[in-house]
Amino acid sequence: MTKKIDPYAALRFREFNIFLLVRFAMVFAWSMQFIVIEWQVYTLTKDPLSLGIIGLMEVIPAVGMALFAGHIVDQKEKRNLLVRCILGFSVISFGLFLLSWPGLEDTWETKTILYGIYALVFLGGLVRAFLGPTIFSLIALIVPKKIYPNAATWSSSTWQLASVLGPALAGFSISFIGVHWSMCVIFGFSVLALITLFQIPRKPIMNPKIGEPVFQSLKEGLKFVFDTKAILGALTLDMIAVLFGGAVALLPVFAQDILHVGSEGFGILRAAPAVGASITMLGSTRFPLHKNAGKKLLWAVFGFGVCIIVFGMSTYFWLSVLALFVSGAVDGVSMIIRQTILQLKTPDNMRGRVASVNSMFVGSSNELGAFESGVTAKLMGTVTAVIFGGSMTILTVGLTALAWPSFRRLDLSKDIEDHEKE
């Protein structure tokens, strides 16, 4: 007899619902802020390389601090650490609000404003180095182990929903209230997240090695990731795909110079991938993806590469939106499987360090992908750069499937059954 699946298992815990509200507000603010920054910078410079520099400014501190941040997260109480992360983001968003003040361009040089934006984005990278591992670790302290997969799906779905609404609102708010007041809205959401977070009490520290030397701690975390082939394979595959498939970084160019759809169309294009991913993730609460996870992940990344190529070749707005929508849907499959692998196979005392490695492999590859897209667009043209990125993604899938047969056979069913017995 098939066991009935409860698609709302994680939502039956009050603290988890509060956590989802905090995560929604933060991701909404962060994704909206990134879009507003992209628009402002490209408006100031009209140079696609400047969009790549935005990604580079965030990825340098995010990668440079990632492992150290993971060590700190494993050593500290998670709720208060998340409070500090949100406070840091609030300061940055308020700084961007001031830098976008109407009339500032008349009194300050464009380079001064641009460098100020880059500096705040750099500080945002420092905050993000701690934010991801803290959130990943906090989930495990809120819900029981047996519903980790369901909690991971709802958490990722919340992330995607915020990623839909954030960019969409950014596009429309730029058009109706301007960049400056859009940044004020972003600051308001960060304050909302901070107030809501205090409804979650402090949590115990699960790491028995408090005070462990930093380098010994980092070595242990890296060794665990590289010895656990399921985690290493998922992270590597997704990192390469995102690195070369970073077409979304060039969306301001497509919106303004190729498709000619303005800020409203830019918001729709930017939201399309997250809409597709949200539908996939909500569906996965009823139809789990843990069986034959390796094959499903490979096919998902392959489909992502195809969609990026179609988007790069398209000169029709509706086709571009459709390609991005489908890319988001298959990327949602990839995200769910990766998060499920991480939650099931990571011990509680290593969650901060493993999440930091994940941010280095996957999270930071978004910004490196943005930089790669900006550079290749400068060198070979925007359309050619996007097609090149999609082709490299497909090639990566083929090489992974051939070189790593054990990953093709990956199935998470037994891991889930083991957690349900605990």
Automatic annotation (TrEMBL):
Matching InterPro entries, A to Z?
Answer: MFS (IPR011701), MFS_trans_sf (IPR036259)
Q: According to its UniProt record, where is this protein mainly located?
A: membrane
Q: Which domain of life is it from?
A: Bacteria
UniProt-listed Pfam families:
MFS_1
What's its membrane topology?
Multi-pass membrane protein
Sequence intervals crossing the membrane: 20-37, 49-69, 81-101, 113-142, 154-174, 180-200, 230-255, 267-285, 297-319, 379-404
Q: Which protein, by its recorded name, is this? A: MFS transporter
